[in-house]
Amino acid sequence: MSTNLRRSSATTKAAVLAGLLTVAVSGTAHAKTADVTVSTPGATMGPATPFTGVSSHADCADGLISGGGADQGIGSDDMSNGNHVMGMAPSADGVTEYTDRPGIVGSDATHWLAFGGSGSRSSDSFSTTPYAMCLHSNLIRHTQVVMNKVAGPSAGLSARLVTATCPAGTALIGGGARTTPAGVGSLKPIASFPTFDDAEHHFGQIAAGDGETDPDSWTAVGGIGGGRDENNMTYAYAICSGDGISLKHVSTTVHFGEVSGPDTASSGQTVTAGCSREDGRLVSGGAAISGGNVTTTDFTKAGSGGPHLNGSFPSDATGTPAGDKSSGPAYWTAATHSGGSPAPNSYSDVWALCLGVQQGHDQ
């Protein structure tokens, strides 16, 4: 074979190989991906005085907030009855809250706020730890925050429910809840969960059940014991994908767990739910202390005034909170507490929201 023929053959093979590599790289570049990393700075101590609150934030240096949570240190004596979750919510800067006019209130949030509050008792043992779920996806490159709010609850031993719904054509990937002000010691969020803006779920009053797919809304429930205040507010936050993506590549699956209790005074309970590999990545979660049957009937408050949340956070299968920079936790845990009085017929509820992304290629 002549030198020119050998060179021609080599050139042809190189061109074919280059073409194959180009196709492979192009296909890889368009594969749909979604990964999640946890960010948490550790505990912020407080509140150390009665009828006050403390806030802390977790931040995503890379990626966007898909959800988040809080975990509280409460001590082991009777003072533990006084500490409760006051809020878990996205933020634009780690300081500012979305509390003004309801609707789409922000985009591409990278911070998560956690609030702890004290009732009539406080302790140096109290603390609040925030957890941010940082989503890295070449499909969901932008997010938006939808907020809704309602006045109350204000009457003793009552609750108020409010639901935030994602815009049409977007996917719900997380949510949160908040109550204000901190000075009303028995006011707190008692539920934060995924749901649907449809008649079957009574437009957010019935929570998404185990195995349900593609919820579009997030509900928050504010509960109150004996305290009263005309300025009480309850806020719900839905974290949604940005506009303009094809939802044929996205699906979400809810997993749910419910256990009875805590029933006796000064006691706690935990419950954990998780995502399977087939479901995709855990992107957010919810928690409640309720009167039970929250996925089949309208949400009801536990009968006494003291039941509250002490945590809603990413974890392992045993309920141990996920560590900073941990990758892809698969479980979500709810921690509840009865307060200083018996809480008969109370239930602890948890939701894990799992994001599945189709691993195909754009054509």
TrEMBL record:
Signal peptide bounds: 1-31
Highest taxon listed in the record's lineage: Bacteria
Keywords for this protein: Signal
Region (Disordered) location: 301-339
Protein name: Esterase
Source species of the chain: Streptomyces alanosinicus
